[in-house]
Write a structure and sequence with these properties.
It is a single chain. By secondary structure, the chain is mostly helical. The protein is 53% helix and 0% strand. The longest helix is centred in the middle third of the chain and has 19 residues.
């Protein structure tokens, strides 16, 4: 019911109305729930043929502070026009910014993307290696984008924690962490490695359409009996 206030268990007082948390069962149910929802942007991009670490890193940069509905078409426009690091390096920043419009901060993102393309061409012969240290050596590339690009493009066992993964896993009570970076570290301790790549693919659509930031759809949530609803004060 709208406006209801579910009981939130404290760290030292478990909620006995809930089932013991089972990540395998939870993700199995979420897999079914999101089957008909749009895929997370970078996984969608991979299915469209943009499979390299470079393409995935570029797409992640475009997605920063930008909704998938905007960032995915922007990434497709850029990568269809210039699918390789060498091709993007030959574009000027204004043309890159035009292609990724209306992504937020398109001018600084265009400069960043061109710089990465030039360095990829000049230092790595046009092929960006699947190496976390290399990716995070680029200005503005943090662990989330590096891990997501590596996981999607090369299958590397990396956890990419965006706002959806952070919010949902803490709301479940599966981890307790104050930032996405700390959630990533916490998940590395408890999440079986077989789910490290998939969790982003599942929780992005789940977090956007079901376990939303405000007033999540708890009444129809497929994993309500496992979720501790930490911090939920209003739901649908």
């Amino acid at each position: 019911m709208q406006g209801s206030r579910p009981r939130t268990p404290s760290a030292d007082r478990p909620d006995h109305s809930k089932r013991p948390f089972d990540i395998a069962a939870v993700l199995r149910r979420i897999r079914r729930a999101v089957r008909e929802l749009p895929d997370a942007a970078m996984f969608d991009l991979r299915e469209r043929g943009h499979t390299t670490v470079f393409a995935q890193l570029v797409a992640c940069i475009i997605s920063i502070r930008t909704r998938d509905e905007v960032s995915l078409p922007a990434a497709i426009r850029l990568l269809d026009a210039a699918p390789t690091a060498d091709a993007i390096a030959r574009l000027d920043e204004a043309e890159i910014a035009r292609l990724i419009h209306p992504a937020t901060f398109r001018e600084p993102k265009a400069a960043q993307i061109r710089a990465i393309a030039q360095r990829t061409r000049d230092e790595f012969a046009g092929t960006l290696p699947a190496d976390f240290d290399v990716l995070t050596s680029f200005r503005g590339v943090g662990p989330k984008c590096a891990n997501l690009a590596l996981g999607v493009a090369s299958g590397a066992k990396r956890i990419a924690v965006d706002i959806h993964v952070h919010r949902v896993t803490n709301r479940w009570g599966y981890v307790r962490a104050s930032t996405p970076e700390r959630t990533m570290a916490a998940l590395e301790e408890v999440l079986p490695t077989r789910y490290w790549i998939e969790i982003n693919r599942l929780l992005v659509p789940f977090g956007k359409h079901i376990c939303t930031g405000r007033a999540p759809k708890c009444s129809t949530c497929p994993v309500l009996e496992y979720c501790r609803q930490v911090g939920v004060e209003e739901h649908r």
